[in-house]
Amino acid sequence: MENYGLLSLVPPALSIFLAIFTRNVILSLVAGTFAGALIITGFNPFFAVVNLMEEHIFVQISSSSNSQILVVMLCIGGFVQLIERSGGASAFSTIIVKYISDPKRGQLAAWTAGLSIFFTDSGNALIVGPLFRPIFKKLNLCKEKLAYIIDTTAAPVSILVPFIAWGVYIMSLIGNAYAELGLTEQPYEVLLSVWPYQFYAILSLLAIPMLLSTGKDIGPMAAAQAKYNRAIANNELNQQDIVVEGELISTNSTLATFIIPLAVMLASLMIFISYFAYTEGVRSIHVNSGICLSYVFASLSCAYMMRQQNKTPYQKSLSHFIRGMEKLISVCFILVLAWSLSSICKELDTGLYLASLIGDSISPSLFPALVFLIGALMSFATGSSYGTFAILMISVVPVAHSLDASLTLTIAAVLSGGLFGDHTSPISDTTVVASMGADCNHIDHVSTQFYYASFVGLMTFIAFVITGFYQSSLVILMMILLQFILITAVMKRFGIDNVSDKNNAADLTLNRPIA
Question: What is the pLDDT of residues 398-454, one digit of tens each?
């Protein structure tokens, strides 16, 4: 197999660089994938185009797991469009704001909802995002905040649950790595022992209520909220919203138009997943098909409610559904390109090259902390936590074994590093889906989230340094307390209030419509 060395870093580095400086994700991914294909084909442009299309894009689209995600996303997009055009979302948000009367409660509600959708990371963003978009608008909260919350309660929640697709995948990697070393521990037991040391997942989930308790923002997030506040004060958002409202949403719709389809969706999903949980076990395809079917049933019930309350013909409801699917074509295109870039990185051995930089001369006590850094770099560069898990579990667990470093901490560092890099990478599919779920500009989401995620990443690195010398499951409690103290102190010193004029914001909340 050819060793590409430094060239293997060019495709992801180019994509990340262009994504940050051009703010055009599709252009950045096209450039990165084409650069990778050029390297693979010996810099022959014709064969590079052929290789990119035949060996990567077509392969990724035809992958069963990827095609499932694309179909699921299109179905969810159709449902979201249908529920918005029905007026049900508007009726729901108008009522719910009476109980979620301030921005802090609204964000906590979104966080709680994110925690409850633990069975799928992408489904988390696509369910919670559309549900809370109108509520965040009513509460004068910028889209970037919703994107941050749903992104932070997606993969970090899923990775902590051992009996869903994430857990099954990780256990398979652990079993393979342990079998190669001749170790007989059961993967399930190993994963449970790793749980208290999944510092990034736990700390990032708790960072949200800690931040909300201060009532302040910092960095790009504060700037995004300030920009949104100015737009509201200058009435730059409302005029467009009113036009869209008047054209697309009927005033005859009641709360039932929202509640019944949502209840159908959740009930269908719970029944579907519960059946397989008690029979053959829940696999990834069961989760994906369950989500897809539940949204189809929810869409049918929404169309029925629209016909009953607004006399909307089924043909028009179908047109709305198809229009919603069309809106997600560009997002699906981004996902396919992101998967293709990850495939190219795998062929170039980008991850293995980065892993080779670790060396074997480091102290066993510091080894988990170094693995966390390498995992974060790999995942950020490739946009794939799954790929990072697979590469590092094979490459660093044997090194940890030979160094007599803690295997438990090493595996935890692989998971935390891969999760952190994936969480902050602009070319990560989960980050893209979070932007879509919040209807937020993708690069704006990446830049506003980076400050908060990086702080948690720093706390995670410190945690692995400490546990490297003193391994105890109680360290997580110490880190939670330390994180709370630091967040409170930093926000008190440097933070900016969420809403600059609370009285004016309250008036706007009561009076302005929803898009």
Answer: 778 777 888 899 999 999 998 998 888 887 878 888 888 888 888 889 989 998 999
Nearest to 19 by CA among 11, 10, 27, 7: 27
In angstroms, the Cα distances linking 59 to 40, 63, 64, 329 are: 16, 6, 10, 18
Task: Give Dmax over CA atoms of the chain in angstroms.
Answer: 73
Distance CA 499, CA 65 (A): 42
Phi/psi of residue 144, each to 5°?
A: -60, -35
Rounded Cα distance between 201 and 151, Å, is: 12
List, for residues 466-511, the tens digit of each pLDDT value: 999 988 889 999 999 999 999 999 998 888 876 544 433 334 333 3
Report pTM. Answer: 0.69
What letter represents residue 256's amino acid?
A
Q: Is 412 left (phi over 0), alpha (psi -120 to 50) or beta?
A: alpha
Which DSSP helix (H) or strand (E) runs through 496?
A: strand 496-497
CA distance 80 to 126: 9
> How far apart, in Å, are the Cα atoms of 506 and each of 50, 500, 501?
57, 11, 9
- By the 8 A CB rule, do 339 and 66 touch? yes
Q: How far is CA 492 from CA 218, 220, 229, 259, 489, in A?
A: 10, 17, 21, 40, 5
Listing DSSP states for 422-448 in one string gives HHH-TT-HHHHHHHHHTT--HHHHHHH
Name the burial class of residue 470, with classes exposed (0-12), middle (13-18) and buried (19+) by CB atoms within 10 angstroms of its CB: exposed
